[in-house]
Request: fold
Amino acid sequence: MSAHADTHAHDDDHGHHHKETFVTKYIFSMDHKMIAKQYLVTGTIMGIIGILMSIMFRIQIAWPEEPNVLFEALLGKWAPDGVMDADIYLALVTIHGTIMVFFVLTAGLSGTFSNLLIPLQIGARDMASGFLNMVSYWLFFLSSIIMVISLFVEAGPAAAGWTIYPPLSALPMAQGGSGMGMTLWLVSMAIFIASSLLGSLNYVVTVLNLRTKGMSMTRLPLTIWAFFVTAIIGVVSFPVLLSAALLLIMDRSFGTSFFLSDIFIQGEVLHYQGGSPVLFEHLFWFLGHPEVYIVILPAMGLVSEIMASNSRKPIFGYRAMIVSILAIAFLSTIVWGHHMFISGMNPFLGSVFTFTTLLIAIPSAVKAFNWITTLWKGNLQMNPAMLFSIGFVSTFITGGLTGIILGDSALDINVHDTYFVVAHFHLVMGISALYGMFAGIYHWFPKMYGRMMNKNLGYIHFWLTAVCAYGVFFPMHFIGMAGLPRRYYTNSNFPLFDDLANVNVIITVFALIGGVVQIVYLYNFFMSIFFGKKSTQNPWKATTLEWTTPVEHIHGNWPGEIPHVYRWAYDYSKPGHDVDFVAQNVPFKEGEVELHH
Amino acid sequence: MTTLLTIIVLVFILIAIWQMVKIFDLAQAKTDNAQIATDKDNTLNGYLMMGFLAFIYIITIICVVKWGDLPLLSNAASEHGGTIDNLMIISLVLIFFVQTITQFLLHYFAFKYKGEKGKQAFFFADNNKLEMIWTIIPVIVLAGLIIYGLNTWINITSVDESEDPLIVELYAQQFNWKARYAGSDNTLGKANVRLIDIDRANILGLDEADPNAQDDIITTELHLPVGKPVLFKMRSQDVLHSAYMPHFRAQMNCVPGMITQFGFTPTVTTAEMRQTPEMQEKVANINEIRVENSKPLVAKGEEALERYEFDYLLICNKICGKSHYNMQMKIIVESQEEYDAWIAEQKEFKNSLIN
Reply:
């Protein structure tokens, strides 16, 4: 993966150097930097699959039931004569959601950057447990493989939506995808959760115990705060999804009735009695909602860091940013019911969840205003990472604002499960988190691979992606407000929606361009690994500790002593200094004082 | 075929762009190859930020003008619908206001403060007054929205039994809807899917021994008398479904093993709704589209699409399997007399059984 195998660590005088074979260096590596790259490449491959799926179902929505060579080539028996089958449509929607939420934006984003940055930015030689870290990656890899295998089973992959509500997901006679495909989905997710828990525990322990001398919690870069809090949310909520998955497996395979009751399907009464699908919805969303913050918080951390360093200014309101992260984390665990206003849950609970949900807008607004103020009177360096960070704030605001409609139970009645919801969550957590991930990749690529990515390709990637993202998801709000339900294979049975058909064509054209543009990024990424311009030690002139390590990766990160930390991470353009950044490991000059609270 | 061509053209355009960038890079190879933004990049991208701000505004205006005349924001056909619409419009206005301002600040700052060599950024780390301002303003605005929203929600979900609502069961199964009227006693008979007996045409599993069930009426169309409160009891026999009646601003999931409910009062008959100018314009527009879409069908020797006439619909809005996309039932709102005449023609349960 790295192009510098030949110029291996030469200046390690701390006894961290071991004889390494190809296998221990590149495959079963316990080095956090290599594991980060493994996460990134696996996440990228899963991302390609996920995006390709979305392009296929977008084509079907725009030109329903028309034959297409792409379908014929990729879907095989699921596209007789090149016409997409209704079952596989639902499967594509389901697996697209699963892959993007969990495999790309949880493992690919948090897995990559938590692993890369936690030890480097807190001044640690590696994670608390390198072994658990390796196991975590390989469990993730295994779950990815199982998820991909599930695409090829006879009756089709899981197709009950990424939320896999029973009874649809529990009964193979309800749809083909609820047979072997769903079993593999559940197994894959159970392994994924194990991977995520091992990773999260490791991150929490590392941040708490391995900070270098002088690195107090209030000197941590916001990236680390975000990863740390994300890991805590993960540890609190992922086990609940695991329990839901296990109970669902019991219902499916061992005849229990946790989620099922009184079912008559295909001419026969099933034995299930006394369970409730609503229970599953509670368990699912107890993870499912925190999950969107597991996805977005790391992106917020990356963006905060990149914005400060490219604005050559401190992040505005460092402490307010920490408080808002903590507030979001706390609130995220008590809002899950806003996905269930019309599930048959007691309306009084709906009132409670409306209240807690709308409260989340407050810390979110604080964050957005702090980012905007960070730009104010800055000296903005428009690197691709900076563009994606600004794009992040833009889509986060656009997508976040419609949350006050969906979080309001009275309004949710009418837009629930329409395209309005699809537009909302794609902008606020899908596109935004993806922008955060791209920003992180462009910014820390030199740290990962010792080379620079091409900036002009980066600019093209950003601007075309930005236009397409709005082109796809902005009009979607309007077809949603016109009442168009999501997850419909075709709308042709509803003349009522005929006047929305052209909007769907426009959306799909933007989606196609947006999808193809990602090839520019992939080309840039993979070519730069091997042929990119060699990076200097601190190309962005940033203050954090990762830029004090040598360009070539070595075990233990620093050749000599671990640097001590004397200041916070945001001394950019501090008055009284000749340069516009002062690294965290630079001691205070005589008479220098802290200029922030 | 057009799709394929579009894709091919797009791919070629991208290859061309990419090649141009490579040429651009090679030409610059000696002078600037650090891959770090220069002043020129900062300026260019700063201007593009303003261009992008314009793009966001333009796409917003286009969407509002072209598709903003939303059937779901006006013309509610139920008593509570208007209150939801008001809340929706207030929320939307607020959203557009905040969106316009914050996007402007974000992109304008990105343009105004684009980097230049030798420029010094302003060290501005925190300011408690500002943080207080943008904590307290959202708190006040949200408090208003929460109070208004909860008030609306409670009014919608609380059922007033004293109004003597018409009781109707909505029964969902893969992939169709049935309605069950409670009959002259306005009390639904007991039912459970375990009692379904297809051979005897007891398709909803009614308890044949229950006296309340005898006069129940099962239909495949939903007729509602205008101005009369109706309380729906939802059931599902197999998987989750969601009974979505967008024109009435009504939706509730149908959950196997439990009965859910939602009540409203229809206020506009189907005939009246068809006569509203908004609806006539919408229907005329749709019919134009359908005529256009029929041309290729007719050319192929197939039948042209039927003319569309407006009807209220009950549609499934929770993923329920292969034919989820075609699970609908017509709703007809009519005068009490028309309703009475229609219901009198329907068969009561006790007479519909096959012995």
